[in-house]
Amino acid sequence: MKSPELPYADTLKCVQCGYCLPACPTYQTTGNETQSPRGRINLVRLVAEGKISDESLLEGPIDLCLGCRACEEACPVGVPYGEILEQTRYLLREHSTKRGLGQRVQTAIYRHLLPDKGRLNLLGDFIWFYQQTIGRWRLMNRLLPLREFVEIMPKIEGPIVRRRKESKESIHARQGNKKVMFFRGCIMDVMFSSINRQTTELLRHLGWSPIVPEEQTCCGALHAHAGDLEFSKELAKKNIMAFEASGARVIVHNAGGCGAMLYEYKHLFEGDSEWAERARKFSDSVQDISQIVASSEQGKFAKAVDAVVTYQCSCHLNHVEKVKSEPVQVIKNLPGVTYKQLPNGTSCCGSAGIYNLVHRKEADAILQAKMSDVKKVNAQVLVTSNPGCYLQMKLGIHQAGLSKQTRVVHLVELLAEASGTAD
Ligand code: SF4
Ligand code: SF4
């Protein structure tokens, strides 16, 4: 690797104060400086200066970073850690001479599965078939790799139901003053199709006219976080064009990870004469569903929830898109809710894209710390706002033996219950 290509100038902004250390989950669980933001920034700088020639010393700590961006918010001098991380991952990937089988498979899945709705639907059909047949026997699940995830996975809607409801959503491009483009995501639209449908129902309930353009595709977040910036730009362009053609002025999402990526398109195309302005308009139109609900009439939510509720935020919704107060506000406003704040509720749960699948041991240590906080609030409902966090929290609740007393829900599911729009 040629050192000038690393984000060297940004690393020099770090004054080594260490204020970011308490915010970093990998530092908190390992106590290891190289697993801290400051340590990672230093390593990038030292490699860029040629003081470390063995790049593998950089690869490990960069690979084990969650990309949660909590350190960025804690930093008093505004070190752009997210940019340092993404640029370093991009360069490590570009210059890597030995791409292992695992990385090739990951790239193939990211490039050929996630953006392809037809293939994703086929995968959904396969999982649905498994869940309806041999997956009913717990013993069968225990033989599988990632068996714990298989056990806590939500029941996928059947092929006919999913496709029928999908086409019904697509033709809902009504003309109206409050047109909104709904960003449906890739995995979200197969694994959590009922939550997507509840989101568009909720929008209608609140007086909006949701449009779900067929031309939209995966947001590109997983690609960008893996260093495949070129491909994430291709996906971003398709989404920008779909939005422009939709005629909507607002883009709503219900997944924190996707939303943050949509919000960052403006940074992705900085300096690009053709796309920078279009990307800025797109990003400035992005809103999380909680922001839409927070600005709506509270009378639309009349059914009492009657439960102690707590909230684990999505890191990217919180630290990148900066949507902080709205999800809490809308939960607190629901009738019958007793809200209890989750200690360290803004700290990562260990999901982080596919981190919990590829770094099981490290993600598990982070999840155990999270669960000790969850036990302190003893809530009946634990709300999340991202599919990865939802599965990770379900896994933690399952492992802690709390499944009978605490249910994990997506914010939209709770809002659908309170508005009477749940199916
Ligand atoms: S992004 Fe998260 S895990 Fe990575 S250094 Fe920052 S706080 Fe630590
Ligand atoms: S990243 Fe920011 S908070 Fe962390 S050590 Fe550097 S200057 Fe301090």
List keywords for this structure.
423 residues, alpha/beta, Fumarate Reductase Iron-sulfur Protein, Chain B, domain 2, Rossmann fold, four-stranded parallel β-sheet, 25 helices, 54% helix, binds iron/sulfur cluster
Spatial order of the strands forming the largest sheet: 2-1-3-4
Please indicate the percent range of residues in DSSP E strands (runs of 2 or more). 5-15%
The number of E-state strands comes to 8
- Seen as an oligomer or otherwise, the chain set is single chain
Main sheet overview:
4 strands, parallel
CATH architecture field of the domain at 298-419:
3-Layer(aba) Sandwich
Q: Kindly, what is the distance between the CA atoms of the first and last residues, rounded to a whole number of angstroms?
A: 54 Å
Q: What is the number of helices?
A: 25
What does this structure look like?
This protein has 423 residues and is an alpha/beta fold. Among the domains are: 93 residues, Alpha-helical ferredoxin (Fumarate Reductase Iron-sulfur Protein, Chain B, domain 2); 122 residues, Rossmann fold, CATH 3.40.50. The strands form two sheets. Strands 2-1-3-4 form a four-stranded parallel β-sheet. Strands 6-5-7-8 form a four-stranded parallel β-sheet, with helices on both faces. Strand 7, helix 24 and strand 8 form a beta-alpha-beta unit. Helix 13 crosses helix 25. It is globular, with a radius of gyration of 21 Å. The protein starts with 7 loop residues before the first helix and ends with a helix. The model has no long low-confidence stretch (mean pLDDT 91). The site of one iron/sulfur cluster has 15 residues, from helix 3 and helix 5.
